[in-house]
Amino acid sequence: MDPSRIAAALLAWSVGVASTFAADVLDPFALSEVAPGNFVHYGSLEERAPGNMGDQANIGFIVGEKCVAVIDTGGSAAVGRALRAAIRRTTDRPVCWIILTHVHPDHFFGTAAFREDRAVVIGHENLPRSMGQRARPYLNALKRDLGDHAAGSEVIPPTQLVRDETVLDLGGRTIRIKAWPVAHTDNDVTVFDERTGTLWLGDLLFVSHTPVVDGKITGFLEVLDTLSRVSVQRFVPGHGKTDAPWPQALEPERDYLALIVRETRAAIKRRKTIEEATDEVGLSERDKWVNFDDFHRRNVTTAYTELEWE
Ligand SMILES: [Zn+2]
């Protein structure tokens, strides 16, 4: 199905009208200018709840002389509205593009807040399919977790797709959107601002928050390897923040994933079941990460099903 028809079908599942009180909880909506023209809002490391309205992912925007490009829109329409208001306080340039780094709902449910901007939504070529498959469960879970604060949130897939690399001219400023092989998900893109050497990683980089594997753990490690050789002045993780330099900032995540691969392979070799593996693999990392118990067992399960066929 073409993306516009998917979009039309998904619009029908939107969760109602905008709530009027939601914006207060996200006010003030803090922005950090991590590099000239690159503005980041750091999301919460807490679980999704009415108190944070799904404001969990790091999201933001890049300002050119002609256009603004938004990078991820947040975990609910309320977060999207807060981001849009913050952009309007920062610049009078129009939002021409919205880049969605991948399929996870904490990164895209705010897109509906930008409807009147008529921005082109851009994502990995695999993103429309993945969003289509997950739209209904994601909306149901959002309503369950946020209640009235989910109002207005919609699944809006990209209409401009990135197969390898897409270059955008924001006016005196070139940004490169790169599609990666299967890693965190099968639809990860990064955004690189050439003028400042700033790399927006989406969830290819987790800081403090337990890394999540929803794609392929060996692919994730390969992508990190490639990224570590890229020349980067500044970088924006998908979750958390760090003062560590590049590429050392990738190391805690890489060590975590590599340990899971090593210990899962060993468990498979010793003919452990998947349940036994999830009870023992990677537990030495528990104290290093937030939300470990929410995500770690699932990562081991994903790794086991991938590695048992090697
Ligand atoms: Zn993610």
Description:
Strand 4, helix 3 and strand 5 (95-99) form a beta-alpha-beta unit. The chain starts with a helix and ends with a helix. It has a 7-stranded mixed beta sheet, with no helix packed on it. Strands 8-9-10-11-12 form a 5-stranded mixed beta sheet, with no helix packed on it. The relative contact order is 0.13. By secondary structure, the chain is of the alpha/beta class. Helix 6 (217-228) packs antiparallel against helix 7, helix 7 packs across helix 9 and helix 8 (274-280) packs across helix 9 (292-307). 34% of the residues lie in helices and 17% in strands. It folds into 2 domains: 1-204, Metallo-beta-lactamase, Chain A, CATH 3.60.15; 206-310, no CATH class. The chain has helices at 3-11, 22-25, 77-90, 105-108, 127-146, 217-228, 251-269, 274-280, 292-307; strands spanning 32-35, 38-41, 59-63, 68-71, 95-99, 120-124, 160-162, 165-169, 174-179, 189-193, 198-200, 234-236. It is globular and about 60 Å long. The protein has 9 helices and 12 strands. It binds zinc ion.
